[in-house]
Amino acid sequence: MPTPRPGTPVRGSTTGRPIMAAMDLFGRRWALRILWELRSGPLGARALLARCEGLSSSVLYQRLRELTANGIIAASADGYELTPLGAALRDALQPLDAWATTWAETQERNDRISAEA
Amino acid sequence: MPTPRPGTPVRGSTTGRPIMAAMDLFGRRWALRILWELRSGPLGARALLARCEGLSSSVLYQRLRELTANGIIAASADGYELTPLGAALRDALQPLDAWATTWAETQERNDRISAEA
DNA sequence: GCTAGTGTTTCGGATAACGAAACACAAGGA
DNA sequence: TCCTTGTGTTTCGTTATCCGAAACACTAGC
Question: ∠ CA B112-A78-B26 to the nearest 5 degrees?
Answer without folding.
Answer: 70
